[in-house]
Amino acid sequence: MADNTAFSLSKQRSIGTSAMVFTDQPAPRASVSHAEKARSLYIHIPFCAHKCHYCDFYSIVDQQDRQQAFTDRLVRELRAQAPFADDRPLETIFVGGGTPSLLAPKLWKTILQELDRLFDLSAIREGTGEFSIENNPESVSPQLAQVYAQGGVNRISMGAQSFNPIQLKALDRTHDPEKVPGAIEAFQRAGIHRVSLDLIFAVPDQTMDQWDTDLRTALALPIEHLSAYGLTYEPGTAMTARLSRGEFTQMPDDIEAEMYLHTIKTLRAHGYERYEVSNHAKPGAACRHNLNYWTSKDWLAVGPSASGHFRGARWKNTPRLDDYLKLDDNGFAPICDYETPDERRELMDLLMTSIRLTQGCDAKSALTRAQTLGCEDQLMLAAVMCQDQGWVIDADADFWQLNDDGFLFADRVARELIGALIVDD
After folding, report:
1. Same-domain pairing of 289 and 352
2. Is the pTM of this model over 0.70?
3. What one-character-per-residue DSSP string does 89-147 give?
């Protein structure tokens, strides 16, 4: 999961390096429980063949002459952060972008060899861990698939977005949808059988029949996981600029809601259960890496714009490749944001993400933590209000869970819960 970089890059100037994240934290100790050590790693590859109009993730049009320099720099950052995994097996690795599959296979081989040398990948290689890489069907080759497989990659995330050329054109996607099955087959031939597919709905002028066709085309493929996102218009993107110029109209909320509910019904009928607002999986196939995000576990993060979370501290690498290549603090990268550990913010973050999960938010734990902040009663009142609105199933349950209508208002529910923790100055 790459981080949102929609707001102006001018507001994301470097304020130091990620060394401050780790030097401000105590060194790894044998007495620290495994749960307090980073078990996950996010890697951001910024290169893209083309900047899609809806995308607000940090990416740059691929420059082959900078791939080697980027790889060398990434390896140095991996070396700097590896000690903070403390020789314990990594449970998950996720590589996002950009388009990671654009990186040359020989450079991927270098990165994968370094990962194997620097980190304990035993759980991943045994199949109990998860190693995912995002891919564009246009840049997949049998050679790349083999390199992935030999390096321990065991899960692929494929950015299809749509199988309809009209919708792909509206999104400014340039790939040929007919190449998606072939790309998946290349990975399966290499021995990588876990595949997730991304789709986008509520595209301008999209009909329900077209969306249903996209869903059924995806379900005909050998996949175990499907992410279905409603199109969002993020600040600073070309898609939002086109909308403001009147080139098209945004999908009405009621039609988008119908598409979302149709998605749930269709996927359930085919054995996929929603485990997060936009994510659906066959039994046992949920993305473990993203679940670590949504439940506020620790993860290391490398690459320009990558965001990490370590023992309560959060940081974001500066989303600028030039800065990333030039500024090297013993391997640590320049950062544009750093938040020291803060119990109130940590609980807000957990409420915001965990309420989006089908399993819900651990109410007992949240209320206990809110009590230490003097906000227990306010938080409980917020949960009751969300129940009264018909969004939360039972405010008195061990977990606050959303019903189908509640998932349509997940952001509103999160705002209500978070608002209960805000203290007026």
Report:
1. no
2. yes
3. BP-EEEEEES-GGGS-HHHHHHHHHHHHHHSB-HHHHHTSSEEEEEE-GGG--HHHHHH
